[in-house]
Automatic annotation (TrEMBL):
Protein name, as recorded: DUF6089 family protein
InterPro entries: DUF6089, OMP/PagP_B-barrel
A Pfam family recorded for this sequence: DUF6089
Domain DUF6089: 4-228
Length: 229
């Protein structure tokens, strides 16, 4: 991960920042969790998600992108299609603050300096880190806080479609799954090793969560020169 950030930083520094075009705006939508507690529907928003997004368009086909998104991840066994989970009847909610950086690729050229309405599907991936509280379920199934928090790293896999709706506004709709490298978000694996006896579920499968929503960005900056990158 250290080398990933070094590569991104070196690219940013080596280019003339005055010759680019940027986008800044908001993300609004919903979130859902996929793990050892609650339903396992892949796309089923049940809590609001809000955030900010920034893009640096390096060519008509790719952009560097960064975002900060806040949401509450919720899992309810009562909403699951698995009768064993319904009978167990666990539930949790966990506030997360996600920071994501990476690269967005468009299927077709998307040059904001061309006249007229344009649209294209796109893919985004990179790396995420999400801050969340730690807790576990005790022997009676009661949520117990560990009074600590952790950063869950992950890989975003986002598919979307965007179009310009004016000279300076771009509207997009996207669905983005996040595969994380942790199994602690839903409390199925305590953060403290001495509480390992309270672990449950599939400890070989990490947590996922999904953001589904819209972005609205404002573009600015002078006409770019794409010839050198």
């Amino acid at each position: 991960m250290r080398y990933f950030f070094l590569v991104i930083l070196s690219i940013f520094i080596s280019q003339n920042i005055d010759a680019q075009i940027y986008e800044v705006g908001i993300f609004a939508g919903g979130s859902n969790f996929i793990g050892d507690v609650g339903a396992t529907n892949y796309i089923s928003p049940n809590q609001p998600a809000l955030g900010a997004i920034f893009k640096w368009n390096r060519s008509p086909r790719h952009s560097f992108r960064a975002s900060i998104i806040f949401s509450e991840l919720e899992g309810l066994d009562s909403k699951s299609s698995d009768p064993r989970r319904v009978e167990r009847d666990y539930s949790f909610s966990n506030d997360i603050l996600e920071i994501s950086v990476g690269m967005e690729f468009t299927f077709w050229d998307f040059d904001l300096h061309q006249v007229g309405i344009q649209g294209t599907p796109y893919l985004y991936t990179g790396i995420t880190t999400a801050n969340h509280d730690n807790f576990y379920f005790d022997e009676n199934g009661i949520i117990t806080s560990e009074n600590t928090s952790s950063w869950a790293y992950g890989i975003p896999m986002v598919l979307g479609y965007k179009t310009n709706i004016s000279n300076h506004l771009v509207l997009a709709a996207e669905i983005g799954t996040r595969y994380t490298f942790t199994d602690e978000i839903d409390g199925s694996v305590p953060d403290a090793e001495f509480r390992e006896r309270f672990s449950f579920g599939n400890t070989n499968s990490n947590d996922w969560y999904v953001f589904t929503g819209f972005t609205l960005t404002y573009t600015f900056g002078r006409r770019p020169c794409y010839c050198n990158f």
